[in-house]
Amino acid sequence: MGFILEHVKNPVQVMNKYKRMLKKQGKMVLSVPNAEAMNRRLGCYAGFLGDVTSLSEYDVELGHLRYYTTDTFKRDIEASGLRIKDIEGIYLKPFTTKQMISLNFDKNILDALCMLGLKYPELSLGIMAECEI
């Protein structure tokens, strides 16, 4: 479930529904946007966001109902009865998308930001969890 749970009213109920479809040794991979991402933290310090969980106009336009922190993501996963096998970050994004594009980073820098994201889920753009029953 890639970037689905932030759009649904009851994410725990959705995970429960799809958990029942897993085979005995099946796995579920979930990813969500991270409220505590580096770019969102920067937005707060710069006065663009009230707090990291605030939804911007763009978020509302995209249909986001929430942002997750690592802790709230883990909480919802555990509430669904799934067990977290591994959790990692997806892409360390230090600036807004518009700023990132304008900087025209070399591929090596973009690859390095992906590698950093794996190590620092609490700062990454997204959080990914591999789960099992």
SSE arrangement:
Layout: H1 11-19, E1 27-33, H2 38-45, H3 57-62, H4 70-79, E2 83-90, H5 97-103, H6 107-119, E3 126-132
Description:
With 133 residues, this protein is α+β, with helices and mostly antiparallel strands. The chain has a single domain (5-132), classed as Vaccinia Virus protein VP39 (Rossmann fold). Helices cover 40% and strands 17% of the residues. It has helices at 11-19, 38-45, 57-62, 70-79, 97-103, 107-119, and strands spanning 27-33, 83-90, 126-132. The radius of gyration is 16 Å and the shape is globular. The model has no long low-confidence stretch (mean pLDDT 93).
The ordered H/E elements are HEHHHEHHE
CATH topology (level 3) name? Rossmann fold
How far apart are the first and last residues' alpha carbons, in Å? 15 Å
Q: Count the beta strands.
A: 3
How large is the share of residues in beta strands? 15-25%
Mean pLDDT: 93
Q: Identify the CATH homologous superfamily.
A: Vaccinia Virus protein VP39
The major sheet is characterized as: 3 strands, antiparallel
Helix content: 25-40%
CATH class: Alpha Beta
Rg over CA atoms, rounded to whole Å, is 16 Å
Unreliable stretches, pLDDT < 50, 5 or more residues?
A: none
Helix-strand makeup class: alpha+beta
Number of domains: 1
> How many DSSP H or I helices?
6
State the shape.
globular
Widest sheet: strand order? 1-3-2
The CATH architecture: 3-Layer(aba) Sandwich
